[in-house]
Amino acid sequence: MKEMYDLIVVGGGPGGAIAAKNAAELGLDVLLIEKRQEIGDPVRCAEGVSKICLSDHIEPDPRWICADLTGSRIYSPDGTMVEMSEEMSGGEVGYVLERKVFDRALVDQCARAGAEVRVKTRATGLIMEKGVVCGIYAMYLGEEYEIRSKIVIGADGMESKVGRWAGIDTSLKPTDMETCVQYLVTNIDIDPQFCDFYLGNEIAPAGYLWVFPKGENMANIGVGILGSKSGDHRAIDYLDKFMRDVYPEGRIIEMVYGGVPVSGPIEKTVSDGLILVGDAARQSDPITGGGIINAMEAGKIAAEVAADAIKKGDYTTDTLNEYETLWRSTIGKEIEYSLVVKETFIKFTDKDLNHLAQSLSNVNFYSLSLKDLLYALFKANKKLLWDLRGLFRDVVNNNFEFKYKKNQFD
Amino acid sequence: MSIKINRYKCGYCGACVGVCPSGALELVETWVEANDCCTSCGLCAKICPVGAIEVNK
């Protein structure tokens, strides 16, 4: 480890890895640190990702794709099923990844692009001079280091500290976080090409339960509930009940716990010498909880802005604000829309959810686009979805393209 | 500070760290550390997906 770099990236998840890779390719001297011993492990993710935009960052590889999905099914509390097929979503549904391999492949790319990578290296604070971030304090194998850089990118995930150290309030309220438990379950009968979502206040209050296939007879089965609903009954209790009721023969071979930010965009994601990306910037989708694609998009933008800033020799907020502008006008716009939908959705009773699902029972999905589906849903449930009228208007008028988010659900 | 983290139950997901308003918690590899900034607000205990945290207010 040197004493000075152009850029230090804190966190080796998808956001950090893509930022480091792009920055290295743009000629910056980059250090990527990851506090854990292994990249990608332990997993804290349901591992589903839309195909859209993934190949902008990495070529799909069978080594980290467990399932290639052709559609999804949504179950309302009374069991009404809404099926969304591949045809409906334009042939782009999703993959279920093997994150341990996927994350490692991303970091491998960034190392090959020239970035220095250090695992088991934890940032313990920021070096600040007159309010400007100029590097990090780090611990590697129990030894403390002071490492300077022109810019720091905080990609330290949901439990991010980097933003807080720089005075950006990233703390989440329980209403801003889905608290999740997932089991990798084997010995079960599932459709390996479909992912299933279960809704309802008895199943997952203000959240959802998912079954994402990971090949034949194996799936990630997990539940996320809104933090404010957690207490007497926790995420693990809801999941255990579902397992008893639906998959009593299932055998659990891995347990994954996690928290997913669903707060929507935070007030600022840059300060002098600092950029936040991914979960650290609360860029996950408030509806689906999906964060991988958004983190990678943000990481790429952050790298480009950082490279420009370094070329200019100006690392102030004024210059780095270009990052704010760019991510808020693309992924940020979609996150804001999703936040409006989430705020409406968490108020729905089980009766409302059943009503929504039943209103789609006579709709032929194979002939519909996503835009038409949303419009059909709104037309049949105007009163229920009145709060979303602005969003539907934009969708119908084609002002809003589901470019990134389409069926993203990790 | 009266926070008790059952490290045998904890799945080191860091959800508690994300909600801690005073930044008192930190996830270090497979354990959570609490420092003296803890105000015993109890949000960490509420958010924990498995109930591994106990806070006496």
From TrEMBL, chain A:
<dbReference type="GO" id="GO:0016628">
    <property type="term" value="F:oxidoreductase activity, acting on the CH-CH group of donors, NAD or NADP as acceptor"/>
</dbReference>
<dbReference type="GO" id="GO:0016636">
    <property type="term" value="F:oxidoreductase activity, acting on the CH-CH group of donors, iron-sulfur protein as acceptor"/>
</dbReference>
<dbReference type="InterPro" id="IPR023590">
    <property type="entry name" value="DGGGPL_reductase"/>
</dbReference>
<keyword id="KW-0285">Flavoprotein</keyword>
<keyword id="KW-0274">FAD</keyword>
<dbReference type="InterPro" id="IPR050407">
    <property type="entry name" value="Geranylgeranyl_reductase"/>
</dbReference>
<feature type="binding site">
    <location>
        <position position="292"/>
    </location>
    <ligand>
        <name>FAD</name>
    </ligand>
</feature>
<dbReference type="GO" id="GO:0046467">
    <property type="term" value="P:membrane lipid biosynthetic process"/>
</dbReference>
<comment type="function">
    <text>Is involved in the reduction of 2,3-digeranylgeranylglycerophospholipids (unsaturated archaeols) into 2,3-diphytanylglycerophospholipids (saturated archaeols) in the biosynthesis of archaeal membrane lipids. Catalyzes the formation of archaetidic acid (2,3-di-O-phytanyl-sn-glyceryl phosphate) from 2,3-di-O-geranylgeranylglyceryl phosphate (DGGGP) via the hydrogenation of each double bond of the isoprenoid chains.</text>
</comment>
<feature type="binding site">
    <location>
        <position position="34"/>
    </location>
    <ligand>
        <name>FAD</name>
    </ligand>
</feature>
<comment type="pathway">
    <text>Membrane lipid metabolism; glycerophospholipid metabolism.</text>
</comment>
<feature type="domain" description="Digeranylgeranylglycerophospholipid reductase catalytic">
    <location>
        <begin position="176"/>
        <end position="260"/>
    </location>
</feature>
<feature type="binding site">
    <location>
        <position position="279"/>
    </location>
    <ligand>
        <name>FAD</name>
    </ligand>
</feature>
<keyword id="KW-1208">Phospholipid metabolism</keyword>
<feature type="binding site">
    <location>
        <position position="48"/>
    </location>
    <ligand>
        <name>FAD</name>
    </ligand>
</feature>
<feature type="binding site">
    <location>
        <position position="45"/>
    </location>
    <ligand>
        <name>FAD</name>
    </ligand>
</feature>
<dbReference type="InterPro" id="IPR054715">
    <property type="entry name" value="GGR_cat"/>
</dbReference>
<feature type="binding site">
    <location>
        <position position="291"/>
    </location>
    <ligand>
        <name>FAD</name>
    </ligand>
</feature>
<feature type="binding site">
    <location>
        <position position="46"/>
    </location>
    <ligand>
        <name>FAD</name>
    </ligand>
</feature>
<dbReference type="InterPro" id="IPR036188">
    <property type="entry name" value="FAD/NAD-bd_sf"/>
</dbReference>
<keyword id="KW-0443">Lipid metabolism</keyword>
<dbReference type="GO" id="GO:0046474">
    <property type="term" value="P:glycerophospholipid biosynthetic process"/>
</dbReference>
TrEMBL record, chain B:
<feature type="domain" description="4Fe-4S ferredoxin-type">
    <location>
        <begin position="32"/>
        <end position="57"/>
    </location>
</feature>
<keyword id="KW-0408">Iron</keyword>
<protein>
    <submittedName>
        <fullName>4Fe-4S binding domain-containing protein</fullName>
    </submittedName>
</protein>
<keyword id="KW-0004">4Fe-4S</keyword>
<keyword id="KW-0249">Electron transport</keyword>
<dbReference type="GO" id="GO:0046872">
    <property type="term" value="F:metal ion binding"/>
</dbReference>
<dbReference type="InterPro" id="IPR050572">
    <property type="entry name" value="Fe-S_Ferredoxin"/>
</dbReference>
<keyword id="KW-0411">Iron-sulfur</keyword>
<dbReference type="InterPro" id="IPR017896">
    <property type="entry name" value="4Fe4S_Fe-S-bd"/>
</dbReference>
<dbReference type="GO" id="GO:0051539">
    <property type="term" value="F:4 iron, 4 sulfur cluster binding"/>
</dbReference>
<dbReference type="Pfam" id="PF00037">
    <property type="entry name" value="Fer4"/>
</dbReference>
<keyword id="KW-0479">Metal-binding</keyword>
<feature type="domain" description="4Fe-4S ferredoxin-type">
    <location>
        <begin position="1"/>
        <end position="30"/>
    </location>
</feature>
<dbReference type="GO" id="GO:0016491">
    <property type="term" value="F:oxidoreductase activity"/>
</dbReference>
<keyword id="KW-0813">Transport</keyword>
<keyword id="KW-0677">Repeat</keyword>
<dbReference type="InterPro" id="IPR017900">
    <property type="entry name" value="4Fe4S_Fe_S_CS"/>
</dbReference>
